[in-house]
Amino acid sequence: MVADIGRRLILAWGLVFFALPAAAEAPRRIVTIGGALTEIVYALEAQEILVGNDTTSYYPPEAEHLPKVGYQRALSAEGIVSLYPDLVILTEEAGPPAVLAQLQAANIPILQLRAGRSLADVRDAIRVIARALKKDRAGSALIDAIDRQTAELAKVTARQPTDKRVLFILQHGGGAPMAAGRETAVDSIIRLSGARNAVTGYAGYKPLTPEAAAALQPDVILTTARGLAQAGGKDALLTAPGLSLTPAARTGSLIVMDALLLLGFGPRTTQAAATLHEAYQGL
Predict the structure, then answer these.
(1) What is the spatial distance between Cα 57 and Cα 87, in angstroms, rounded to a whole number?
(2) Structure confidence at residue 10 as a pLDDT band (50, 70, 90)
(3) Global pTM value
(4) What is the DSSP letter of 110?
(5) Please, which of 121, 218, 256, 273 could form a disulfide with 193 given CB 3.0 to 4.6 Å?
(6) Are 154 and 172 in contact (CB under 8 A)?
(7) pLDDT tens, residue by residue, 118-140
(8) Within a 10 A sphere around the Cβ of 211, how many other Cβ atoms?
(9) Strands laid side by side in the 8-13 sheet
(10) Sheet strands (E) in the chain
(11) Strand partners, 30
C-alpha cells in the first residue's frame, strides 16, 4: 500500500480527483467507462488511443465497435486488464468496488471524476481529461464551443418563453416508474431548455404513484426511448393510472429522447437542451 501511494500522485480539485503515475507522459492506451466520458475523448480528437469502453458508450457510432468491458456499474476487471490500458477514465458511479480494487492491485492508473449533473460538471470533466491526455488546447476550444452554444440557446429561450411543466419518468423493467426531482441531470436539462420540472418537492428520484402523477399535472411527459419500450409504448404510458389524468395525457404531449443524449452530460449537453426545447415548442 505504501509503495502504491509512492507511485501515484493524487490531486483533489473540489469534487473531482484523479490518480495518475508521477511520470508526465501522455497515456497511450486508455479505457473509458461512461458514455459521456467516451464522447469527451472523441471530441478532443484523442480516439486513436482509446482501446476499449463500456456498454453505455455508443456515441459517436464508431465508439460502439470498440471492445466492451461491461456495464459501467458491473465492470469486468479481466476485460479491462486484458486491454493493457495505461489509464482508465471513469466516474464515481463505476463499479463494483471490488473491480476497482482489482485494477488498483494491478497498478492500472485510474482517473475518476464526478458524474455530470450540470454544465459546470461538463466543463470540469473536459478540463481534467484534456489535461490528462495532454490536449489542453483542444479542451479549451471545446469548452468555448459549448459556451457559445449555451449563450445561443439562452437567446432562443428568452425569445420563446414557456411555463410548461415537464415530468421526466425513468422506467425500469418490471419496477415502478421513477420521477426525477431536483438535483438530477434531467432537472438541469429541463431548466436549461427553458421549461420547469414538474417535480419540485424533493431531490433525486422517487417512485411515481398514481396519486402523485395526477397531482403534479405536467404539461409534458419526458422519457427515454428505452423507457418508453419498457412502459409498453406511448398509449400504455399515457393511459397509466394517474398519468391519464394529466394535461400531458389529454394532449398527447410525450417527448422521447435518447438516454445518452438526455442524461449523459457530455459535450452534447446543450444540444440535448436545445432538442428538448424544440420538441415541446412543437407540441
Answers:
(1) 17
(2) very low
(3) 0.90
(4) E
(5) 273
(6) no
(7) 999 999 999 999 999 999 999 99
(8) 11
(9) 8-13, 16-21, 110-113, 87-91, 30-32, 50-53
(10) 8-13, 16-21, 30-32, 50-53, 70-71, 74-75, 87-91, 110-113, 165-170, 178-180, 196-197, 205-207, 220-224, 254-257
(11) 50, 87
